[in-house]
Amino acid sequence: MGLILLLVSLLFGYGAIELHASHYFDSHLQSIPFPRSLISDDQPYRTAYHFQPVKNWINDPNGPMIYNGIYHLFYQYNPDGVVWAPPVWAHSTSTDLINWTPQPIAIQPEMDANINGSWSGSATILPGNIPAMLFTGLNPKYEQVQVLAYPKDINDPYLKEWFLAPNNPVMFPTPENQINASSFRDPTTAWRLRDGIWRVLVGSKTGTTGTSLLFKSKDFVNWVQIKEPLYSYKLSGMWECPDFFPVYINCKPIGVDTSTIGHHVKHVLKNSLDDTKHDIYTIGTYLHEKEAYVPDVGFMNESSLRYDYGKYYASKTFFDDVTTRRILLGWANESSSVADDMEKGWSGIHTIPRNVWLDCSGKQLIQWPVSEIEALREKPISVPHQVLKGGSIIELHGVTAAQADVEISFGIHDLKNIEKFKASWTDPQLLCSQKGTSVSGGLGPFGLLTLASKGLEEYTAVFFRVFKAHNNKFVVLMCSDQSSSSLNQTPDKTSYGTFVGVNPIREGLSLRILIDHSVVESFGGKGKNVITARVYPTMAIYDDAHLYVFNNGTGSVRITSLTAWSMKKARIA
Ligand code: DQQ
User: Fold this and answer.
1) Is the pLDDT of residue 67 over 50?
2) Which residue positions does the secretion signal occupy (predicted)?
3) According to DSSP H, which parts of 303-383 are helical?
4) Which structural domain, as residue segments, surrounds residue 365?
5) Domain boundary among 334, 369, 404
6) Could you give the C-alpha distances from 419 to 191, 360, 411, 432, 442, in angstroms and in order?
7) Which residues line ligand 1 (CB under 6 A)?
Protein backbone atom coordinates (compact mmCIF):
# COMPACT_ATOMS: atom_id res chain seq x y z
CA MET A 1 0.00 0.00 0.00
CA GLY A 2 2.73 2.44 1.11
CA LEU A 3 4.73 1.60 -2.01
CA ILE A 4 1.79 2.19 -4.30
CA LEU A 5 0.96 5.50 -2.65
CA LEU A 6 4.55 6.62 -3.04
CA LEU A 7 4.59 5.61 -6.69
CA VAL A 8 1.35 7.42 -7.38
CA SER A 9 2.41 10.59 -5.60
CA LEU A 10 5.73 10.61 -7.48
CA LEU A 11 3.90 10.23 -10.76
CA PHE A 12 1.23 12.83 -10.18
CA GLY A 13 1.85 16.13 -11.84
CA TYR A 14 3.29 14.94 -15.10
CA GLY A 15 2.52 12.55 -17.88
CA ALA A 16 -1.18 13.44 -18.19
CA ILE A 17 -2.45 14.26 -21.67
CA GLU A 18 -5.98 15.46 -22.29
CA LEU A 19 -7.33 13.85 -25.44
CA HIS A 20 -10.21 16.29 -25.76
CA ALA A 21 -12.52 13.77 -24.18
CA SER A 22 -13.82 13.22 -20.73
CA HIS A 23 -10.90 11.03 -19.73
CA TYR A 24 -7.31 11.82 -18.90
CA PHE A 25 -4.67 9.61 -20.40
CA ASP A 26 -1.79 9.28 -17.99
CA SER A 27 0.79 7.28 -19.88
CA HIS A 28 2.87 6.74 -16.74
CA LEU A 29 0.09 5.49 -14.51
CA GLN A 30 -1.35 3.25 -17.15
CA SER A 31 1.94 1.58 -17.88
CA ILE A 32 2.95 0.80 -14.31
CA PRO A 33 3.43 -2.98 -14.35
CA PHE A 34 0.64 -4.49 -12.38
CA PRO A 35 1.75 -7.71 -10.71
CA ARG A 36 -1.16 -9.83 -9.57
CA SER A 37 0.46 -9.94 -6.12
CA LEU A 38 -0.29 -6.24 -5.68
CA ILE A 39 -4.01 -6.85 -6.03
CA SER A 40 -5.32 -7.46 -2.57
CA ASP A 41 -7.17 -10.76 -2.06
CA ASP A 42 -9.36 -8.95 0.39
CA GLN A 43 -11.85 -7.29 -1.95
CA PRO A 44 -14.58 -5.67 0.16
CA TYR A 45 -15.52 -3.30 -2.68
CA ARG A 46 -15.92 -5.81 -5.52
CA THR A 47 -19.56 -6.02 -6.43
CA ALA A 48 -21.45 -9.31 -6.31
CA TYR A 49 -24.16 -8.64 -8.87
CA HIS A 50 -23.22 -5.44 -10.72
CA PHE A 51 -21.31 -5.85 -13.97
CA GLN A 52 -17.54 -5.52 -13.76
CA PRO A 53 -14.62 -7.42 -15.29
CA VAL A 54 -12.01 -9.19 -13.15
CA LYS A 55 -9.52 -6.34 -13.29
CA ASN A 56 -8.54 -3.01 -14.82
CA TRP A 57 -10.41 0.06 -16.00
CA ILE A 58 -13.84 0.08 -17.65
CA ASN A 59 -16.08 2.94 -18.71
CA ASP A 60 -18.96 3.33 -21.16
CA PRO A 61 -21.28 0.47 -22.16
CA ASN A 62 -21.06 0.06 -25.94
CA GLY A 63 -23.22 -1.55 -28.61
CA PRO A 64 -25.68 -3.36 -26.34
CA MET A 65 -28.10 -5.57 -28.26
CA ILE A 66 -30.01 -8.81 -28.20
CA TYR A 67 -29.12 -10.98 -31.16
CA ASN A 68 -30.65 -14.41 -31.76
CA GLY A 69 -31.73 -14.55 -28.11
CA ILE A 70 -28.35 -13.61 -26.60
CA TYR A 71 -27.60 -10.28 -24.95
CA HIS A 72 -24.31 -8.68 -25.96
CA LEU A 73 -22.57 -6.04 -23.90
CA PHE A 74 -19.42 -4.37 -25.18
CA TYR A 75 -17.60 -1.82 -23.10
CA GLN A 76 -14.70 0.61 -23.06
CA TYR A 77 -11.77 -1.23 -21.50
CA ASN A 78 -8.10 -0.69 -20.70
CA PRO A 79 -6.56 -4.18 -20.64
CA ASP A 80 -3.33 -2.87 -19.08
CA GLY A 81 -4.23 -0.75 -16.08
CA VAL A 82 -6.74 0.83 -13.70
CA VAL A 83 -6.88 4.28 -15.34
CA TRP A 84 -8.30 5.31 -18.71
CA ALA A 85 -6.06 4.67 -21.71
CA PRO A 86 -6.85 4.40 -25.43
CA PRO A 87 -9.61 1.82 -25.15
CA VAL A 88 -10.48 -1.45 -26.81
CA TRP A 89 -13.98 -2.93 -26.91
CA ALA A 90 -14.27 -5.78 -24.42
CA HIS A 91 -17.26 -8.08 -24.79
CA SER A 92 -19.52 -10.21 -22.57
CA THR A 93 -22.68 -12.18 -23.34
CA SER A 94 -25.68 -13.16 -21.27
CA THR A 95 -29.09 -14.80 -21.46
CA ASP A 96 -30.57 -12.80 -18.59
CA LEU A 97 -28.72 -9.43 -18.36
CA ILE A 98 -27.44 -10.42 -14.89
CA ASN A 99 -25.06 -13.38 -15.35
CA TRP A 100 -22.38 -12.60 -17.96
CA THR A 101 -19.78 -14.67 -19.78
CA PRO A 102 -16.61 -12.88 -20.88
CA GLN A 103 -15.77 -13.19 -24.58
CA PRO A 104 -12.53 -12.26 -26.39
CA ILE A 105 -11.78 -8.58 -27.00
CA ALA A 106 -14.05 -7.65 -29.91
CA ILE A 107 -12.46 -4.51 -31.33
CA GLN A 108 -8.88 -3.28 -31.07
CA PRO A 109 -6.54 -1.22 -33.29
CA GLU A 110 -6.83 -2.77 -36.73
CA MET A 111 -6.54 -0.07 -39.37
CA ASP A 112 -5.73 3.63 -39.61
CA ALA A 113 -9.30 4.54 -38.70
CA ASN A 114 -8.96 3.17 -35.15
CA ILE A 115 -5.19 2.90 -34.74
CA ASN A 116 -5.21 5.20 -31.70
CA GLY A 117 -8.26 3.84 -29.92
CA SER A 118 -11.79 2.50 -30.31
CA TRP A 119 -14.16 4.81 -28.51
CA SER A 120 -17.88 4.48 -27.87
CA GLY A 121 -20.57 3.44 -30.31
CA SER A 122 -23.81 1.56 -30.86
CA ALA A 123 -25.33 -1.48 -32.54
CA THR A 124 -27.91 -1.53 -35.33
CA ILE A 125 -29.47 -4.73 -36.69
CA LEU A 126 -29.56 -4.40 -40.49
CA PRO A 127 -32.06 -6.10 -42.85
CA GLY A 128 -31.19 -9.79 -43.18
CA ASN A 129 -30.53 -9.91 -39.42
CA ILE A 130 -26.98 -8.57 -39.73
CA PRO A 131 -25.59 -6.74 -36.70
CA ALA A 132 -23.47 -3.69 -37.45
CA MET A 133 -21.48 -1.48 -35.09
CA LEU A 134 -20.76 2.17 -35.63
CA PHE A 135 -18.17 3.56 -33.25
CA THR A 136 -15.59 6.33 -32.97
CA GLY A 137 -12.03 5.55 -33.96
CA LEU A 138 -8.99 7.73 -33.43
CA ASN A 139 -6.90 7.85 -36.59
CA PRO A 140 -3.11 8.45 -36.85
CA LYS A 141 -3.71 12.20 -36.46
CA TYR A 142 -5.87 11.58 -33.37
CA GLU A 143 -8.88 12.81 -35.30
CA GLN A 144 -12.22 11.34 -34.30
CA VAL A 145 -13.80 9.44 -37.19
CA GLN A 146 -16.72 7.00 -37.36
CA VAL A 147 -15.94 3.37 -38.03
CA LEU A 148 -18.14 0.47 -39.20
CA ALA A 149 -17.62 -3.08 -37.90
CA TYR A 150 -19.38 -6.42 -38.48
CA PRO A 151 -19.18 -9.87 -36.88
CA LYS A 152 -16.97 -12.26 -38.82
CA ASP A 153 -19.51 -15.07 -38.49
CA ILE A 154 -23.16 -14.30 -37.78
CA ASN A 155 -23.74 -18.00 -37.15
CA ASP A 156 -21.47 -17.89 -34.11
CA PRO A 157 -24.04 -17.47 -31.31
CA TYR A 158 -21.54 -15.40 -29.30
CA LEU A 159 -20.33 -13.21 -32.20
CA LYS A 160 -16.82 -13.57 -30.84
CA GLU A 161 -14.87 -12.07 -33.72
CA TRP A 162 -15.42 -8.73 -35.45
CA PHE A 163 -13.82 -7.05 -38.45
CA LEU A 164 -13.72 -3.48 -39.68
CA ALA A 165 -15.30 -2.70 -43.05
CA PRO A 166 -12.58 -1.99 -45.67
CA ASN A 167 -13.93 1.45 -46.60
CA ASN A 168 -13.54 2.95 -43.12
CA PRO A 169 -13.86 5.60 -41.85
CA VAL A 170 -17.45 6.08 -42.96
CA MET A 171 -17.87 9.58 -41.46
CA PHE A 172 -14.97 11.97 -40.90
CA PRO A 173 -14.15 15.66 -40.48
CA THR A 174 -13.22 17.55 -43.67
CA PRO A 175 -12.45 21.23 -44.41
CA GLU A 176 -15.87 21.39 -46.10
CA ASN A 177 -17.99 20.02 -43.25
CA GLN A 178 -15.95 21.97 -40.67
CA ILE A 179 -16.55 19.31 -38.03
CA ASN A 180 -14.34 19.75 -34.99
CA ALA A 181 -12.02 16.71 -35.24
CA SER A 182 -11.59 16.44 -31.47
CA SER A 183 -15.34 16.70 -30.75
CA PHE A 184 -17.01 14.23 -33.08
CA ARG A 185 -17.94 10.98 -31.45
CA ASP A 186 -20.23 8.27 -30.10
CA PRO A 187 -22.70 7.38 -32.90
CA THR A 188 -26.17 6.25 -31.83
CA THR A 189 -28.10 3.20 -32.91
CA ALA A 190 -29.37 4.11 -36.40
CA TRP A 191 -33.06 4.25 -37.30
CA ARG A 192 -34.68 3.78 -40.69
CA LEU A 193 -37.84 5.52 -41.87
CA ARG A 194 -40.34 4.54 -44.57
CA ASP A 195 -38.10 6.08 -47.24
CA GLY A 196 -35.67 3.22 -46.53
CA ILE A 197 -32.93 5.66 -45.44
CA TRP A 198 -30.90 5.20 -42.27
CA ARG A 199 -30.29 8.08 -39.88
CA VAL A 200 -27.70 8.27 -37.14
CA LEU A 201 -26.61 10.93 -34.63
CA VAL A 202 -23.05 11.76 -33.68
CA GLY A 203 -22.27 13.92 -30.63
CA SER A 204 -20.36 17.16 -31.15
CA LYS A 205 -20.00 20.80 -30.21
CA THR A 206 -19.53 24.08 -32.05
CA GLY A 207 -17.79 26.50 -29.74
CA THR A 208 -19.71 25.94 -26.51
CA THR A 209 -22.93 24.83 -28.23
CA GLY A 210 -23.61 21.12 -27.76
CA THR A 211 -25.02 19.47 -30.86
CA SER A 212 -26.32 16.18 -32.30
CA LEU A 213 -25.04 15.94 -35.88
CA LEU A 214 -27.34 13.99 -38.20
CA PHE A 215 -26.12 11.70 -40.99
CA LYS A 216 -28.12 9.72 -43.56
CA SER A 217 -27.33 6.63 -45.58
CA LYS A 218 -29.03 4.28 -48.01
CA ASP A 219 -26.57 1.42 -47.55
CA PHE A 220 -25.08 2.01 -44.06
CA VAL A 221 -21.65 2.52 -45.68
CA ASN A 222 -21.92 5.85 -47.50
CA TRP A 223 -23.10 8.55 -45.10
CA VAL A 224 -24.05 12.13 -45.94
CA GLN A 225 -24.31 14.83 -43.31
CA ILE A 226 -27.60 16.75 -43.10
CA LYS A 227 -26.80 20.46 -43.01
CA GLU A 228 -28.72 21.20 -39.81
CA PRO A 229 -28.10 19.11 -36.71
CA LEU A 230 -31.08 17.25 -35.24
CA TYR A 231 -30.86 19.52 -32.21
CA SER A 232 -28.37 21.88 -30.52
CA TYR A 233 -28.32 23.89 -27.35
CA LYS A 234 -26.09 26.80 -26.54
CA LEU A 235 -23.61 26.79 -23.65
CA SER A 236 -24.15 23.10 -22.94
CA GLY A 237 -20.66 22.04 -24.10
CA MET A 238 -19.71 18.77 -25.76
CA TRP A 239 -22.50 16.18 -26.09
CA GLU A 240 -21.07 12.71 -25.60
CA CYS A 241 -22.89 9.41 -26.10
CA PRO A 242 -26.16 10.77 -27.56
CA ASP A 243 -29.15 8.42 -27.51
CA PHE A 244 -32.39 9.00 -29.42
CA PHE A 245 -35.36 6.68 -29.13
CA PRO A 246 -39.16 6.55 -29.13
CA VAL A 247 -41.33 5.73 -26.10
CA TYR A 248 -45.02 4.78 -26.11
CA ILE A 249 -47.36 7.39 -24.70
CA ASN A 250 -49.62 4.71 -23.18
CA CYS A 251 -47.58 4.72 -19.93
CA LYS A 252 -47.16 0.96 -19.96
CA PRO A 253 -43.73 -0.49 -19.15
CA ILE A 254 -43.10 -1.65 -22.70
CA GLY A 255 -40.52 -0.51 -25.21
CA VAL A 256 -40.63 0.20 -28.90
CA ASP A 257 -38.21 -0.29 -31.81
CA THR A 258 -35.84 2.62 -32.46
CA SER A 259 -37.25 3.20 -35.98
CA THR A 260 -40.85 3.69 -34.80
CA ILE A 261 -42.51 7.05 -35.51
CA GLY A 262 -46.13 8.19 -35.22
CA HIS A 263 -48.65 9.82 -32.92
CA HIS A 264 -48.52 6.94 -30.44
CA VAL A 265 -44.91 7.76 -29.48
CA LYS A 266 -42.85 10.62 -28.10
CA HIS A 267 -39.08 10.75 -28.56
CA VAL A 268 -36.34 10.96 -25.96
CA LEU A 269 -33.03 12.69 -26.66
CA LYS A 270 -30.34 11.97 -24.10
CA ASN A 271 -26.86 13.46 -24.02
CA SER A 272 -23.92 12.95 -21.69
CA LEU A 273 -22.65 16.43 -20.88
CA ASP A 274 -18.86 16.31 -20.92
CA ASP A 275 -18.56 19.52 -18.85
CA THR A 276 -20.54 18.22 -15.85
CA LYS A 277 -20.52 14.44 -16.37
CA HIS A 278 -24.30 14.24 -16.19
CA ASP A 279 -26.65 12.21 -18.41
CA ILE A 280 -29.54 14.52 -19.18
CA TYR A 281 -32.60 13.99 -21.33
CA THR A 282 -35.61 15.72 -22.78
CA ILE A 283 -38.89 14.31 -24.05
CA GLY A 284 -40.22 15.79 -27.25
CA THR A 285 -41.42 15.40 -30.81
CA TYR A 286 -39.41 14.07 -33.71
CA LEU A 287 -40.38 16.07 -36.80
CA HIS A 288 -39.02 13.53 -39.26
CA GLU A 289 -40.03 15.44 -42.40
CA LYS A 290 -37.91 18.34 -41.15
CA GLU A 291 -35.17 16.09 -39.71
CA ALA A 292 -35.56 17.98 -36.44
CA TYR A 293 -36.40 17.37 -32.81
CA VAL A 294 -38.43 19.72 -30.64
CA PRO A 295 -38.28 19.10 -26.90
CA ASP A 296 -41.52 19.68 -24.95
CA VAL A 297 -39.55 21.73 -22.45
CA GLY A 298 -37.14 23.77 -24.49
CA PHE A 299 -33.72 23.24 -22.99
CA MET A 300 -30.95 20.70 -22.93
CA ASN A 301 -28.62 21.69 -20.15
CA GLU A 302 -28.11 21.23 -16.45
CA SER A 303 -31.75 22.12 -15.73
CA SER A 304 -32.99 19.18 -17.80
CA LEU A 305 -34.05 15.87 -16.32
CA ARG A 306 -31.32 13.41 -15.42
CA TYR A 307 -31.41 9.62 -15.61
CA ASP A 308 -29.53 9.47 -12.36
CA TYR A 309 -28.63 12.18 -9.87
CA GLY A 310 -25.54 10.38 -8.55
CA LYS A 311 -22.44 8.86 -10.12
CA TYR A 312 -23.68 7.81 -13.54
CA TYR A 313 -22.53 8.59 -17.08
CA ALA A 314 -22.26 7.58 -20.74
CA SER A 315 -25.43 5.49 -20.68
CA LYS A 316 -27.08 3.84 -23.66
CA THR A 317 -30.40 2.09 -24.34
CA PHE A 318 -31.32 -0.72 -26.71
CA PHE A 319 -34.63 -2.24 -27.73
CA ASP A 320 -35.12 -5.84 -26.63
CA ASP A 321 -37.55 -7.20 -29.23
CA VAL A 322 -37.90 -10.53 -27.42
CA THR A 323 -39.32 -9.09 -24.20
CA THR A 324 -40.50 -5.78 -25.77
CA ARG A 325 -38.50 -3.61 -23.41
CA ARG A 326 -36.20 -0.63 -23.78
CA ILE A 327 -33.23 -1.32 -21.56
CA LEU A 328 -30.83 1.27 -20.21
CA LEU A 329 -27.21 0.55 -19.28
CA GLY A 330 -24.86 3.02 -17.63
CA TRP A 331 -21.38 3.43 -16.18
CA ALA A 332 -20.82 4.21 -12.48
CA ASN A 333 -17.25 5.43 -12.09
CA GLU A 334 -15.35 5.02 -8.84
CA SER A 335 -15.37 7.76 -6.20
CA SER A 336 -12.10 6.44 -4.78
CA SER A 337 -8.58 7.76 -5.36
CA VAL A 338 -6.34 6.36 -8.10
CA ALA A 339 -4.09 4.97 -5.36
CA ASP A 340 -7.04 3.03 -3.92
CA ASP A 341 -8.04 1.86 -7.40
CA MET A 342 -4.53 0.57 -7.99
CA GLU A 343 -4.72 -1.36 -4.77
CA LYS A 344 -8.08 -2.85 -5.74
CA GLY A 345 -6.79 -3.62 -9.22
CA TRP A 346 -9.93 -2.39 -10.94
CA SER A 347 -11.99 0.71 -11.59
CA GLY A 348 -15.56 1.20 -12.85
CA ILE A 349 -18.76 -0.83 -12.81
CA HIS A 350 -22.04 -0.76 -14.71
CA THR A 351 -25.38 -0.16 -13.04
CA ILE A 352 -28.09 -2.83 -13.04
CA PRO A 353 -29.84 -2.77 -16.44
CA ARG A 354 -33.01 -0.69 -16.16
CA ASN A 355 -36.29 -1.01 -17.98
CA VAL A 356 -37.34 2.51 -19.13
CA TRP A 357 -40.71 3.82 -20.24
CA LEU A 358 -42.69 7.07 -20.26
CA ASP A 359 -44.49 8.10 -17.08
CA CYS A 360 -48.27 8.60 -17.36
CA SER A 361 -47.69 12.37 -17.01
CA GLY A 362 -45.72 12.26 -20.27
CA LYS A 363 -43.21 14.54 -18.61
CA GLN A 364 -40.51 12.13 -17.50
CA LEU A 365 -39.26 8.57 -17.78
CA ILE A 366 -39.69 5.79 -15.26
CA GLN A 367 -36.72 3.50 -14.64
CA TRP A 368 -36.85 0.15 -12.87
CA PRO A 369 -34.27 -2.63 -12.46
CA VAL A 370 -34.96 -5.43 -14.96
CA SER A 371 -37.06 -8.16 -13.34
CA GLU A 372 -34.32 -10.77 -13.97
CA ILE A 373 -32.41 -9.32 -11.00
CA GLU A 374 -35.14 -10.69 -8.73
CA ALA A 375 -33.86 -14.24 -9.40
CA LEU A 376 -30.94 -13.35 -7.11
CA ARG A 377 -33.22 -12.50 -4.19
CA GLU A 378 -33.38 -14.92 -1.27
CA LYS A 379 -34.44 -15.10 2.39
CA PRO A 380 -36.82 -12.14 2.46
CA ILE A 381 -37.51 -10.40 5.72
CA SER A 382 -40.51 -8.13 6.23
CA VAL A 383 -41.50 -5.61 8.81
CA PRO A 384 -45.18 -5.17 9.73
CA HIS A 385 -46.99 -1.86 9.18
CA GLN A 386 -45.97 0.49 11.92
CA VAL A 387 -45.51 4.08 12.89
CA LEU A 388 -41.90 5.25 12.87
CA LYS A 389 -41.73 8.01 15.42
CA GLY A 390 -39.41 10.98 15.07
CA GLY A 391 -35.95 10.11 16.39
CA SER A 392 -36.25 6.34 15.94
CA ILE A 393 -33.97 3.81 14.33
CA ILE A 394 -34.67 0.10 13.78
CA GLU A 395 -32.12 -2.47 12.66
CA LEU A 396 -33.26 -4.90 9.96
CA HIS A 397 -31.85 -8.26 11.03
CA GLY A 398 -31.53 -11.41 8.95
CA VAL A 399 -30.37 -9.88 5.69
CA THR A 400 -26.84 -9.76 4.20
CA ALA A 401 -26.66 -6.00 4.47
CA ALA A 402 -23.63 -5.63 2.17
CA GLN A 403 -25.45 -7.44 -0.64
CA ALA A 404 -29.17 -6.74 -0.54
CA ASP A 405 -32.28 -5.49 -2.33
CA VAL A 406 -34.69 -3.47 -0.17
CA GLU A 407 -38.15 -2.12 -0.94
CA ILE A 408 -39.80 0.24 1.54
CA SER A 409 -42.90 2.45 1.39
CA PHE A 410 -43.79 5.25 3.75
CA GLY A 411 -47.19 6.79 4.43
CA ILE A 412 -47.29 10.45 5.42
CA HIS A 413 -49.88 11.64 7.93
CA ASP A 414 -48.23 13.80 10.59
CA LEU A 415 -48.09 17.26 9.03
CA LYS A 416 -48.09 19.42 12.12
CA ASN A 417 -44.38 20.27 12.05
CA ILE A 418 -43.88 20.30 8.29
CA GLU A 419 -41.29 22.89 7.21
CA LYS A 420 -41.96 25.64 4.71
CA PHE A 421 -40.10 25.30 1.45
CA LYS A 422 -38.09 28.35 0.41
CA ALA A 423 -38.32 29.41 -3.23
CA SER A 424 -34.55 29.99 -3.20
CA TRP A 425 -33.92 26.25 -2.68
CA THR A 426 -33.54 25.46 -6.35
CA ASP A 427 -30.55 23.12 -6.11
CA PRO A 428 -31.53 19.77 -4.53
CA GLN A 429 -27.94 18.54 -4.31
CA LEU A 430 -26.93 21.63 -2.36
CA LEU A 431 -29.99 21.28 -0.13
CA CYS A 432 -29.05 17.66 0.61
CA SER A 433 -25.54 18.73 1.58
CA GLN A 434 -26.93 21.45 3.87
CA LYS A 435 -29.67 19.28 5.36
CA GLY A 436 -27.82 15.99 5.80
CA THR A 437 -28.84 12.90 7.77
CA SER A 438 -28.12 14.45 11.15
CA VAL A 439 -30.14 17.64 10.54
CA SER A 440 -33.57 17.03 12.02
CA GLY A 441 -36.53 18.55 10.20
CA GLY A 442 -40.32 18.63 10.61
CA LEU A 443 -40.93 15.72 8.24
CA GLY A 444 -37.70 13.89 7.60
CA PRO A 445 -35.03 12.88 7.11
CA PHE A 446 -36.51 9.35 7.05
CA GLY A 447 -35.27 6.40 5.03
CA LEU A 448 -32.53 3.78 5.24
CA LEU A 449 -29.00 3.69 6.60
CA THR A 450 -27.18 1.30 4.27
CA LEU A 451 -23.68 -0.16 4.59
CA ALA A 452 -23.70 0.96 8.22
CA SER A 453 -21.26 -0.10 10.92
CA LYS A 454 -22.69 -1.35 14.23
CA GLY A 455 -21.82 1.84 16.08
CA LEU A 456 -22.81 4.05 13.11
CA GLU A 457 -19.28 5.30 12.59
CA GLU A 458 -20.00 4.66 8.91
CA TYR A 459 -23.21 4.67 6.87
CA THR A 460 -24.64 5.78 3.55
CA ALA A 461 -28.05 7.32 4.19
CA VAL A 462 -30.80 7.43 1.58
CA PHE A 463 -33.77 9.45 2.72
CA PHE A 464 -36.64 11.81 2.05
CA ARG A 465 -37.60 15.20 3.47
CA VAL A 466 -41.03 16.65 2.82
CA PHE A 467 -41.76 20.39 2.72
CA LYS A 468 -44.81 22.52 2.06
CA ALA A 469 -44.46 25.18 -0.65
CA HIS A 470 -46.27 28.55 -0.86
CA ASN A 471 -48.81 27.17 -3.31
CA ASN A 472 -49.70 24.55 -0.66
CA LYS A 473 -48.13 21.82 -2.75
CA PHE A 474 -45.70 19.37 -1.21
CA VAL A 475 -42.05 19.29 -2.18
CA VAL A 476 -40.26 15.95 -1.75
CA LEU A 477 -36.48 15.97 -1.51
CA MET A 478 -34.62 12.67 -1.96
CA CYS A 479 -31.00 12.53 -0.79
CA SER A 480 -28.14 10.07 -0.84
CA ASP A 481 -25.74 11.26 1.86
CA GLN A 482 -22.24 9.81 1.54
CA SER A 483 -20.57 12.16 4.05
CA SER A 484 -20.23 9.39 6.67
CA SER A 485 -19.83 6.52 4.23
CA SER A 486 -16.21 5.73 5.12
CA LEU A 487 -13.54 6.45 7.70
CA ASN A 488 -11.16 6.61 4.73
CA GLN A 489 -10.79 10.32 4.00
CA THR A 490 -9.74 10.03 0.34
CA PRO A 491 -12.95 9.08 -1.55
CA ASP A 492 -15.22 11.74 -2.99
CA LYS A 493 -18.18 11.85 -0.55
CA THR A 494 -20.39 14.41 -2.29
CA SER A 495 -24.05 14.19 -1.26
CA TYR A 496 -26.53 13.80 -4.09
CA GLY A 497 -30.10 15.06 -4.25
CA THR A 498 -33.19 15.37 -6.41
CA PHE A 499 -36.78 16.58 -6.11
CA VAL A 500 -39.30 13.76 -6.63
CA GLY A 501 -42.52 14.75 -8.41
CA VAL A 502 -45.04 12.85 -6.29
CA ASN A 503 -47.87 13.80 -3.97
CA PRO A 504 -46.62 12.12 -0.78
CA ILE A 505 -50.01 12.19 0.95
CA ARG A 506 -51.92 10.59 -1.89
CA GLU A 507 -49.24 8.26 -3.24
CA GLY A 508 -46.93 7.67 -0.25
CA LEU A 509 -43.18 7.60 -0.73
CA SER A 510 -41.35 4.52 -1.92
CA LEU A 511 -37.68 3.61 -2.08
CA ARG A 512 -35.98 0.62 -3.64
CA ILE A 513 -32.28 0.26 -2.94
CA LEU A 514 -29.83 -2.18 -4.51
CA ILE A 515 -26.88 -2.45 -2.13
CA ASP A 516 -23.78 -4.19 -3.44
CA HIS A 517 -20.59 -3.65 -1.35
CA SER A 518 -19.42 -0.39 -2.96
CA VAL A 519 -22.57 0.73 -4.76
CA VAL A 520 -25.91 1.98 -3.44
CA GLU A 521 -28.39 2.34 -6.31
CA SER A 522 -31.60 4.00 -5.08
CA PHE A 523 -34.92 4.30 -6.94
CA GLY A 524 -37.34 6.85 -5.43
CA GLY A 525 -41.03 7.41 -6.18
CA LYS A 526 -41.45 4.01 -7.93
CA GLY A 527 -38.62 4.77 -10.35
CA LYS A 528 -39.23 8.47 -11.00
CA ASN A 529 -35.83 9.50 -9.63
CA VAL A 530 -32.65 7.46 -9.29
CA ILE A 531 -29.41 8.12 -7.39
CA THR A 532 -26.34 5.89 -7.64
CA ALA A 533 -23.55 6.30 -5.09
CA ARG A 534 -20.12 4.66 -4.90
CA VAL A 535 -18.88 4.18 -1.33
CA TYR A 536 -15.96 2.46 0.41
CA PRO A 537 -16.71 1.65 4.06
CA THR A 538 -13.80 0.37 6.14
CA MET A 539 -15.85 -1.14 9.01
CA ALA A 540 -19.25 -1.84 7.39
CA ILE A 541 -17.98 -4.59 5.12
CA TYR A 542 -19.04 -8.19 4.55
CA ASP A 543 -20.90 -9.49 7.65
CA ASP A 544 -20.10 -6.32 9.58
CA ALA A 545 -22.42 -4.28 7.39
CA HIS A 546 -25.81 -3.41 8.91
CA LEU A 547 -29.04 -2.01 7.59
CA TYR A 548 -31.35 0.34 9.49
CA VAL A 549 -34.58 2.18 8.87
CA PHE A 550 -34.59 5.57 10.53
CA ASN A 551 -36.56 8.73 11.07
CA ASN A 552 -34.57 11.72 12.25
CA GLY A 553 -37.39 14.22 11.85
CA THR A 554 -39.71 15.40 14.62
CA GLY A 555 -42.92 14.24 12.91
CA SER A 556 -43.73 10.53 12.61
CA VAL A 557 -44.19 8.60 9.39
CA ARG A 558 -45.75 5.20 8.78
CA ILE A 559 -43.92 2.22 7.29
CA THR A 560 -46.61 0.78 5.01
CA SER A 561 -44.43 -2.02 3.59
CA LEU A 562 -40.85 -3.14 3.96
CA THR A 563 -39.21 -6.21 2.46
CA ALA A 564 -35.48 -6.81 2.28
CA TRP A 565 -33.81 -9.67 0.45
CA SER A 566 -30.31 -11.04 0.73
CA MET A 567 -28.86 -11.19 -2.77
CA LYS A 568 -27.01 -14.13 -4.27
CA LYS A 569 -23.86 -13.54 -6.27
CA ALA A 570 -24.25 -13.29 -10.05
CA ARG A 571 -21.86 -15.16 -12.38
CA ILE A 572 -20.03 -12.32 -14.08
CA ALA A 573 -16.35 -13.02 -14.54
N1 DQQ B 1 -15.85 7.83 -23.32
C2 DQQ B 1 -15.41 7.38 -24.61
C3 DQQ B 1 -15.85 8.42 -25.58
C4 DQQ B 1 -16.98 9.05 -24.89
C5 DQQ B 1 -16.55 9.08 -23.46
C6 DQQ B 1 -13.92 7.19 -24.60
C7 DQQ B 1 -17.66 9.18 -22.49
O8 DQQ B 1 -16.21 7.84 -26.82
O9 DQQ B 1 -17.25 10.31 -25.41
O10 DQQ B 1 -13.56 6.17 -23.67
O11 DQQ B 1 -17.32 8.66 -21.22
Assistant:
1) yes
2) 1-21
3) 338-344
4) 36-369
5) 369
6) 49, 29, 17, 15, 6
7) 21-23, 59-60, 76, 87, 119-120, 136, 185-186, 240-241, 272, 313-314
